[in-house]
Design brief:
mainly alpha, single chain
Length: about 375
Amino acid sequence: MRNRYLDLLRFLAIVRVVVYHVTGWASLTLIFPAMSVMFALAGSLMAASLSRTGAPAVGRRLRRLLPSLWVVALLFVPAMLFTGLEPTWRVVLWLFPVADPPANGWGALALSPIWYLRDYLWFVLASPVALWLFRRAPLPTLLAPYLVLVSIEMGVLAEPSLVVREFALYFGAWMLGFAHHDGMLRRLANRVFVPVVVLVGGAGAAWILTHPGNRGYDINDIPLGNALWSAAFILVALGRAPSGAAWVDRNAVFGRTVTVFNRRALTVYLWHMPFVVALTPLVDVVGWSHQDPVGLAIRVALVFALVGVVTALVGWVEDVAAGRPPQLLPGGPRPAPRSTRADEPSTRAEPPGPTEQTPAVEEEGAAARTR
């Protein structure tokens, strides 16, 4: 059965990402570090898939990840080629982004969230070995990315490669997802859990306060503070998570909304930033500044409305990629089992409902690399 608490976390993370990109409010990154939460949820899901089916889970995860990207590339890559993008072999990276695929000026901004898919792909490919190591030496394996990040921040590792930097920043959150799946976080006694959360969160907060970035206390500009603060948040959110959140479905509209955002996470993630960029000129035309709450609320509503239209048009690709029947709006009531005869109920067992959470890819991109 689906864990509605995890569905709720993913829904909140996706909404936070969109609102942050419209408003630019740095406080949102502190209140809810959505990027790391989404990596942690994806790591937990990946551990579940590897435990169930082994290495073939990697191929299935990629199959679910890439088709939604290909739909975006089918539209935007030709548009960029017609507007100045140089046609080189690197264009094929839009099919399998193991490195940053090329983009022209406007495309680099509108499609900047692609970095998340790149990192997600790296983490999926690394997961079979990483999970094997994690289950044999949990603490050293979990601490390794954070220690590498400290080394980078202290100048011990000068000019690290992009791969090293991204693994140091976010792979710790992914492996906290491993720990969540294996029940390690839940089993931690409070006498250990509480001091760890306070120590890690306090260190992260102290680093953020003493090392503000270009946008102040936006943690996307403060890698070490981001990693530590996010780790503490994940420890609380997953380590002391309720067994479920049945109340989510007490309101049919809200429950359906949570389901739609989970089943269409990739579509919302990939398409929201182009609309944020497209609506930005309205700021000058109608005078909606970032200090105007009414104007911001209208822009947020417009972005969600436009994403909703695109989701209705192409969101079904996520169903096909996951092996589900395509649906216009997911989460509707399941049809009642058909009887074998008009006067006799069927005795054939119905297939169980889905047991996997839809992977979230989720997250951000103002300018070439805003999260």
